[in-house]
Amino acid sequence: MGYMHLGYEPRNDVVCEFYFEHASGVSAKIAAENIAAESSIGTWVDVPGTKKQLGAKVFSIKNNIVKIAYPLDLFEPGNVPQLLSSVAGNVFGMKILKNLRLNDISFPKKYIRSFKGPNIGLNDLRKMTGIKKRPLIGTIYKPKLGLSPGEMEKLAYKVYSNGIDYTKDDENLGSMRFNKFEDRVIKVLNVVDEIKSEQGRQVVYAANITASTDEMLRRAEFVKDHGGKCIMIDILTAGWSGLQTIRNQNFKMIIHAHRASHGAFTHNPKHGISMKVIAKLSRLVGVTGLHTGAVVGKMKGDEREIVEIDNFLRSEWYGLKKTIPIASGGVYPGLIPKIIKILGNDIIINCGGGLWGHSMGAEAGAKAMRQAVDATMEGISLKEYAKDHGELKLAIKQWGC
Ligand code: CAP
Ligand code: MG
Questions:
Q1: This prediction's pTM
Q2: Domain range list for the chain
Q3: Which CATH architecture has domain 122-396?
């Protein structure tokens, strides 16, 4: 087939690292060549007119890991769907493979530069909110569905006025009979303005615009027209095309990227696509914040991988702005020191049930979250700090630390 180039040294190539298990009766080499063929220019048999110079090159096979270099000409600049249709398309369904997982991908500078990256990056978010060092503290309106816009408006005031920097719709909140999108955006943004005038704090509301792309465009415009500074997209259920379309409008708004449904293909270590790949594509396209896991919360996620992904999102990458990791899922005040110790300060810590479920209510839940972050930033243990911070004391009594 001519895709085997062991020892080739990639230069200006897109490079993919796959974990693979070949089907019985097939050698690893044949399986690897078929991955390279199917994800670049070939099929199961050689056909006339094939331009071999465009073919992918298998350059390393070791212990179920195959590394493949792809000529840059195979990829349309600035087009994530086309990239994934190549390197994460048919290859996942081939009989010749028992399992296949795209573990990592790297891009040459020219390809990276064909994307916009974040419009509002980590540093812009800190400047906008005036929060220079500590993690931003966020919450998700709970219950996730059922609240009316009027109820959300009241809850927004309760939590923002007691120290929460950032609130978001839950991932499955759209525009329903009980909660129309426009109605809640107007009401919650009114509270954002109230906090600005009462406390001089610029707080953030992430309105979930996830819908068809044309509808997302309309909703994003609506948020912008009403003074909003942030939109949320469930990037995997909305899709890369939808995300790119919204990013490419150059709205000067935060893009909060929720990763609902990633577990369908990131969780299995032998088959699917890693969260590291999702994170690289998300930053390329240009999200401001990306859910990457809290390590110690309720959601699955390997500490080493989450730390690696968070460090990548905050690293220097060919001049692209930084993306802030969002640590969320089963978080409560007692977990704050561990989360900051593992993931650092440059994060948004999101807490839903661990705030709204506080025995003394939402205001106390918000205060307890802020107290836990303040204590940690001052290097004081939560137990010590709780001695004269009652809300934190009750949260520790309720959920531990
Ligand atoms: C958290 C959450 C988030 C998860 C997503 C939820 O609520 O709102 O969607 O954090 O997981 O619906 O579960 P709680 P991840 O704080 O009440 O758990 O951040 O890992 O993508
Ligand atoms: Mg949620």
A1: 0.97
A2: 13-112, 122-396
A3: Alpha-Beta Barrel (3.20)
